[in-house]
Write a structure and sequence with these properties.
The chain has helices at residues 2-21, 35-55, 57-60, 75-86, 93-96, 101-113. The protein is mainly α and 124 residues long.
Length: 124
């Protein structure tokens, strides 16, 4: 029975350490937006961040360890991914993952509005 408690404590401790090391993402949100619109945008940006983490970060490594690839997309690279997605380009990772258009839109918006310096330095 003690083994179960020790394992549970260890798993909890690892989870806490992992969560605390993830830096909060800041966004470039237009300050003139009404507060309800800002809240809605922040919610969509968070969904985009989570979708990126789930579908893209393994290779692009913005939110977690990943291949060197393209950790900080330029505006042109973001636009190219969006165009390739809309054109159903089979070389586009998002098509291979079968992301819904609204999911891809959330990821693109996340990438466009995130502040680069708010991303953790876990790149390898």
């Amino acid at each position: 029975m003690k083994k179960i408690y020790i394992i549970a404590a260890f798993v909890s401790m690892v989870s806490i350490v992992q969560c605390s090391s993830e830096k909060k993402v800041a966004y470039n949100i237009d300050p003139s937006l009404p507060e309800p619109k800002k809240a809605e945008l922040r919610a969509n940006l968070e969904k985009g961040r989570l979708l990126f983490k789930q579908h893209c970060s393994e290779c692009h490594g913005i939110n977690q360890k990943g291949k060197k690839g393209i950790p900080d997309f330029t505006s042109q690279e973001i636009k190219d991914y969006s165009v390739a997605y809309k054109a159903l380009d089979k070389r586009n990772h998002a098509v291979a993952k079968k992301l819904l258009p609204e999911e891809m839109s959330m990821i693109i918006t996340f990438l466009q509005l995130r502040k680069i310096d708010s991303i953790p330095a876990h790149r390898h």
